[in-house]
What does this fold into?
Amino acid sequence: DAGITQSPRYKITETGRQVTLMCHQTWSHSYMFWYRQDLGHGLRLIYYSAAADITDKGEVPDGYVVSRSKTENFPLTLESATRSQTSVYFCASTPGNEQYFGPGTRLTVT
Amino acid sequence: AQSVSQHNHHVILSEAASLELGCNYSYGGTVNLFWYVQYPGQHLQLLLKYFSGDPLVKGIKGFEAEFIKSKFSFNLRKPSVQWSDTAEYFCAVNNNAGNMLTFGGGTRLMVKP
It folds into this structure.
């Protein structure tokens, strides 16, 4: 089925480890986004991508790296995880205007 | 830069009560407006959207929102809530020229049966 998927759905990792969260969409939308959702902060944009090989920082990019070699994939990497990166991460894509969200990844950094 | 404010962080209602959630944005130009809903443990889903035309927008599940340009507001309403409306609601805005959304902080609604 067409849509946007994220993996893993749940992840527990230790401080200092590298973690990659995957996002895949089947619509061929140009724009893709990564958000983190934390109590009291709503949704905050980490990085976004306008097309393959074009990425840019959002509101809270520190500690994260993204790449987009193919239109359908937009992985998010935490190079050295910290406890402050414990959060729920949502990937989204858009054909223009409204965004479609993935199911989220709940990441816990111990 | 645009910003979105949702003044009610937590709302508790009884079933059949009427709902109004406030959303105000700051942006001087033409905007597109959205309400998203996030049910417990789920991802965000689009509830309704306004691009142009009739400022009273009907969405899914009996929700509606009214765009009042002079007040920079896009409040969400429902005449009679149900227990199943328990969720977090997010207002979002984009500036009609791009694909970036600015989200409000969200309102957690709990409906008591």
Summary: Chain B is about 0% helix and 50% strand. Chain B touches chain A at residues 32, 34, 36, 42-46, 49, 51, 90, 94, 99-101, 103-106 (CB under 8 Å). Chain B has a mean pLDDT of 92.
